[in-house]
Write a structure and sequence with these properties.
Layout (H helix, E strand, L loop, with lengths): L10 H29 L23 H15 L5 H12 L11 H4 L12 H7 L11 H16 L10
């Protein structure tokens, strides 16, 4: 083939190839990180479109609303705790993910993984369940209220918990 018929390579094509390879590499590196964020969460059965804007009690269906609804129930049942104490512990335990599940600690090794916003194990949830809340450990309000009931019995209040409990 003569030199005239051969496609001419420019420096730009080498740069484009390098940038494409770098972009692909970054995407490949990011995929495990994106997946890792959800690896500890149980699969969600609801979509954003089907998630109601409020809870049945009329609170916003988000972390703020779940905490506020739990505090209202706790006040009725004389369970101590504050918004800040609950919020601080939720962020440390689950980052606000109501479907969080710990599959690696000593509880998980025993077959009873910690679950939900405040990472409660099933026996603790059952023992400290608060009447009037769901029996679903992944229900945000039930999880918060049971965990606060447990923390009140063990530490005086969820406000006194500053680490794994």
């Amino acid at each position: 083939m003569s030199a005239v018929a051969q496609p001419r390579r420019t420096r730009n094509s080498r740069l484009v190839r390098a940038l494409t390879a770098a972009g692909t590499g970054a995407a490949v590196l990011a995929l495990p990180l994106i997946g890792a964020a959800d690896a500890s969460a149980a699969p969600s059965t609801t979509t954003a479109a089907s998630t109601p804007a409020t809870t049945p009690a009329g609170y916003p269906n988000n972390l703020d609303g779940w905490i506020r609804e739990s505090l209202a129930i706790m006040a009725e049942k004389h369970i101590p705790g504050t918004y800040n104490g609950i919020h601080r512990n939720i962020i440390r335990e689950s980052s606000g993910n109501p479907k969080a599940i710990n599959l690696w600690d000593s509880n998980a090794a025993k077959g009873i993984p910690s679950k939900g916003l405040l990472q409660v194990i099933d026996p603790t949830f059952n023992a400290y369940h608060v009447a009037g809340t769901s029996f679903d450990i992944y229900d945000p309000v039930a999880n918060i209220t049971a965990a606060c009931n447990y923390a009140a019995a063990r530490y005086g209040s969820i406000d006194n918990v500053f680490g794994a409990y």
